[in-house]
Write a structure and sequence with these properties.
- Keywords: Signal.
- InterPro entries: AL/BT2_dom (IPR010496).
- It comes from Niastella koreensis.
- This is 3-keto-alpha-glucoside-1,2-lyase/3-keto-2-hydroxy-glucal hydratase domain-containing protein.
- The protein is mainly beta.
- The protein has one domain: Jelly Rolls (Sandwich).
- Helices cover about 10% and strands about 45% of the residues.
- The strands form 3 sheets. Strands 1, 4, 5, 7, 14, 15, 16 and 18 form an 8-stranded antiparallel beta sheet that branches.
- Strand 11 and strand 12 form a beta hairpin.
- It starts with a helix and ends with a strand.
């Protein structure tokens, strides 16, 4: 009987979690997002850089740019599941595969807008990139307000290229937490941004997303 109650408790927690998380990517189309490509501008993806097929968001990486939510978010818990494809494109055809999720994105369509980035790059998943003078406090020290500031992850918990990874971003009262496959790999506090859109990059490498969902905190 005790074992049954434990199982029921776990199922209840899982069901509650599922109800709280809402899909940002619906698995069918890009409703709720708009595209921006460096070469084409807003909502002009003639090259098919971003597409949806068989429930997956496919990002070719051929053009630099992004899709970004129409909606802005304050405090949230974001979950994304991704895996790398095979193709790479200039100018990064001979470099590690690169992508990223930006959050607290400012209202300025360019490559790249002012935001906090959770890096998705082979070997570097979970790094911070603080774009356009954004600052954080990391282990008691405030970062410099530069064009692009990198704060490397403290742990490595990526799966091999070609396997699915689970990335979580928790943003709460200016505190940023990056989680890779269940392990906290980077944290910062006192973010100089507090609200904005959520953005998925295209940056020279093919990548697939099977889940992007969010809980507003």
């Amino acid at each position: 009987m005790k074992k049954l109650f434990v199982i029921l408790g776990i199922l209840l927690v899982c069901d509650t979690y599922a109800q709280q998380m809402k899909p940002l990517f619906n698995g069918k189309d890009l409703t709720g997002w708009y595209s921006f490509l460096k070469s084409e501008g807003k909502n002009n993806d003639s090259a098919g850089v971003f597409s949806v097929k068989d429930g997956l968001l496919h990002v070719t990486g051929k053009e630099f740019g992004y899709i970004v939510t129409n909606k802005k978010f304050n405090d949230f818990h974001l979950v994304a599941e991704f895996k790398w494809g095979e193709r790479k494109y200039p100018p990064r055809e001979n470099r590690v595969r690169d992508n990223g999720i930006l959050y607290c994105v400012a209202d300025s369509d360019r490559v790249w807008p002012r935001a906090i980035e959770c890096q998705i790059q082979e070997g570097d998943c979970g790094d911070f990139w603080l774009i356009d003078s954004v600052t954080l406090i990391i282990e008691g020290t405030q970062t410099q307000a530069t064009k692009n500031t990198r704060v490397a992850k403290k742990k490595d918990n990526e799966k091999p290229t070609g396997e699915w990874n689970r990335l979580e971003i928790i943003f709460k009262n200016g505190k940023c937490t990056h989680i890779m496959n269940g392990v906290v790999v980077n944290e910062g506090t006192d973010a100089s941004l507090h609200t904005g859109r959520i953005l998925v990059q295209s940056e020279g490498a093919e990548i697939y997303y099977r889940k992007i969902e969010i809980e507003e905190l």
